[in-house]
Amino acid sequence: MTDTKKAEKKIGRPKKFDDEVALQAALNMFWKKGYDGASMKDLTSAMGINSPSLYASYGDKQALFVKTIEHYLQNGSCTPLEVFEQEEDLTLAVKGFFDAVISYSSEYELDVNGCFLGSCVVASVETVPDVKPLLQKAITESEIRLASRFKMAVLEGQLPEDFPCEERAKLMFDLRQGVLFRARSGVASDNLRKDVDFWTSLVLLNV
Fold this sequence. Notes:
Number of helices: 12
Oligomer: single chain
Radius of gyration: 21 Å
Strand content: under 5%
């Protein structure tokens, strides 16, 4: 093989990259700038790949955005839910849930407040195909996990048998979204934590 052909082959060879790292980098860029604000130049620069590689691996910008959402849902553990499920004392579990929400929404390591789904994804529901069902799935699965923990508490005698598990799960989720909204606006975590006891009392009202 001639030197010229070797050079041509080298140029045409796809650049190798870590798919997980690239998707996380794209997710962080979308999270920081939003779907509309993140340009292809922003994305390729963050992912460490060129435009042809991006299109070949992920498709266009819309397809990449959907893949970052799927990546987030499949790989991102939800610390608040895990705290709520693992703490045996229900009152401490509810408080721990809200405290964890505050921590990850206002103290994110990349200095991006809020939540990827609540801050970025929800704004694109009507403009990017396939986003709405993913968001609805995330909401439903979160509420199911919250309600299941309440139902377990009923079986354990920590809650009365007529406790409205599904309704309080929805309330807890909606309060979480409010916390994320405030964090996104720049409210300090210390100020948010002043209301944890009140939110807990609302969730466990009449218990």
